[in-house]
Amino acid sequence: MTIAGPHLIEAENPGQAWLAMCNCVLANHNEVRNLVVVIHDPISVDPLVDMTVEAFCRSQGLRTPKHVAYTIFPQGLARRHAGSDLFTAYNRTGGFFDRVKTSWGTYFRRMTYYEGRDGPVNQLARIIEGVNSRKACHRAAYTVTIQQPGSENVRARGAPCLNYLALQMEPDRPRTISLLAVYRNHDVVERAYGNFVGLGWLLGFLCRETNSAVGQLTCLSAHAYIDRSIGALRALLKTLGQP
Q1: Rounded distance between C-alpha atoms, residue 45 and residue 40, angstroms
Q2: Count of other CB atoms within 10 angstroms of residue 166
Q3: Which of 52, 48, 60 is nearest to 229 (CA)?
Q4: What pTM value is reported for the model?
Q5: Residue with the larger pLDDT of the pair 115 and 199
Q6: What is the 3 state secondary structure string of 150-213?
Q7: Residues with Cβ < 8 Å from 201, sequence gap 6 or more?
C-alpha cells in the first residue's frame, strides 16, 4: 500500500539524508509518495557512509554512487576543466559524453546541450551568465528542464527520472544559492545517494562560477521506492547504527 504523505526529512549531509530516506521508505511498505528531503550541507560527504554504500552497491551488483553522481555532474572532469571549458570537454565529439552516454543521454548533457527547437541550448551557461550579469538577485528566475516533451512524459519506468531543477537565490552577503530537484520516480537503493552527491557537486559548481555561497539542497520525490536488496539494505543500516 502506497502512503500518500507528504513526508519530510531534514539532514546535515547526503549520507545522513540517504539513511533517513531508507528508514522512511522501509517503514512505509517500501513505497511512498511526496517525499521531501532537505540537505543543509549538500557538498559535505560522510566518509563512513560513502565507503559503506559504495561497497554495498558493488556487493549487490548495483551502479555505484560515483557512477550515478557522474550522470548529474562530472566531478573529475571539472577538476581539470574550469568554466566553459568543462562544457566543451564534456560535449565535444569524442568527449566525455560520448564515453558515458546511455540510450537517452545523461542529466548533465540535458543541462548543457538540451536539444531544443532551434538547436542545442546550454542551460547552465545561460544561468551562470544571467546570475553574473544582472545586478538584482532574482530569487526564482533560473530553472533547468530535463525531460523532453513526447514519449518521456508518459514513460512508466526508466530514466530520465529527474524532471526539473530550480535555483533558489537569496541576496545575502555573500549571495546564497540553493537547489530544488524534482524526481518523478526515485530508486532509493541504487540511485538516491548518488543523486544527492551529484546534485551537491552541481550546486558547488554553480556557486563557484557565480561567486555565491552554497545553500541547501531540496529533493522532492513524487514516488520513492525500494524494490531490491531489502534484506541486505536492512543489514547495512544496522551496521551504520540505524534502528
Answers
A1: 12
A2: 16
A3: 60
A4: 0.94
A5: 199
A6: CHHHCCCCCCCCEEEEEEEEECCCCCEEEEEEEECCEEHHHHHHHHHHHHHHHHHHHHHHCCCE
A7: 43, 69, 72, 73, 75, 78
